[in-house]
Amino acid sequence: MDILILFKALILGIIEGLTEFLPVSSTGHLIVFGDLINFHSNGKVFEIAIQLGAVLAVVFEYRRRFQQVMTGIGRDRQVNRFVVNLAVAFVPAAVVGLLFSKQIKQYLFNPLTVAAMLVLGGLFILWVEKRQSSRTPKVKTVEEMRPIDALMVGCAQICALIPGTSRSGSTIMGGMLWGIERKAATEFSFFLAVPMMIAATGYDVLKHYQLFTLQDIGLIAVGFTAAFFAGLLAVKALLKFVSSKNYVPFAYYRIAFGGLILLTWATGWVSWGE
């Protein structure tokens, strides 16, 4: 296999792993960088592989917590509450995604939509952080969350169906707006990513399984591995970061990155696919 193609797969795997859990939009970055480096594989197959690599990073990082959940379902009241919260938060975006995913991918999956949403999302994060600086969170930990709290986070996740918005950004900011403490909202966003991404991956596998070929094994292996280790690094770093800081730096990054894409498009420096 062409070494250049493998290098591109490595780059996109790293991008997926680093951005999946940061409030900067992994899908948006993959669309932009995939277009920029002219990466064209069996798109869905490769995307499924690297998304799975990223989500397994969360499962590995929280393996003890997930083990407790698996052994405590039906017997542990706190575990049952946690599972119910995940189920409640999962439903809104899953339903809307099933109903409108085709239209969203047809009309919104392009670099210019991503750029606009990066900028708008960055401004939104700035507003949320400024608002929260003068408010005391009502929910301090994931264990304190009620189904209504989870539902609000789940409704916020619907926004993430638009590329460039960011699933983690939507759920974390939505949780904070509702009164969930920053670190608790971040952890719940990580947990929610697991059923959400496994469901999305399973759906795509069933829909596109005929695209899997032996020729793609090397490509998939490189992207999957890169996404796993980059995702593990991102999860650890983000939890440490939000323990003492806020999301304002990510907001400025979004605005700068999205603005750069729009600038290069407006001046004709880069002919972004539309």
Automatic annotation (TrEMBL):
<keyword id="KW-0472">Membrane</keyword>
<feature type="transmembrane region" description="Helical">
    <location>
        <begin position="251"/>
        <end position="272"/>
    </location>
</feature>
<keyword id="KW-0378">Hydrolase</keyword>
<dbReference type="Pfam" id="PF02673">
    <property type="entry name" value="BacA"/>
</dbReference>
<feature type="transmembrane region" description="Helical">
    <location>
        <begin position="107"/>
        <end position="128"/>
    </location>
</feature>
<keyword id="KW-0133">Cell shape</keyword>
<protein>
    <recommendedName>
        <fullName>Undecaprenyl-diphosphatase</fullName>
        <ecNumber>3.6.1.27</ecNumber>
    </recommendedName>
</protein>
<keyword id="KW-0961">Cell wall biogenesis/degradation</keyword>
<feature type="transmembrane region" description="Helical">
    <location>
        <begin position="218"/>
        <end position="239"/>
    </location>
</feature>
<keyword id="KW-1003">Cell membrane</keyword>
<feature type="transmembrane region" description="Helical">
    <location>
        <begin position="82"/>
        <end position="101"/>
    </location>
</feature>
<dbReference type="InterPro" id="IPR003824">
    <property type="entry name" value="UppP"/>
</dbReference>
<feature type="transmembrane region" description="Helical">
    <location>
        <begin position="188"/>
        <end position="206"/>
    </location>
</feature>
<comment type="function">
    <text>Catalyzes the dephosphorylation of undecaprenyl diphosphate (UPP). Confers resistance to bacitracin.</text>
</comment>
<dbReference type="GO" id="GO:0050380">
    <property type="term" value="F:undecaprenyl-diphosphatase activity"/>
</dbReference>
<keyword id="KW-0573">Peptidoglycan synthesis</keyword>
<keyword id="KW-0812">Transmembrane</keyword>
<feature type="transmembrane region" description="Helical">
    <location>
        <begin position="45"/>
        <end position="62"/>
    </location>
</feature>
<keyword id="KW-0046">Antibiotic resistance</keyword>
<comment type="similarity">
    <text>Belongs to the UppP family.</text>
</comment>
<keyword id="KW-1133">Transmembrane helix</keyword>
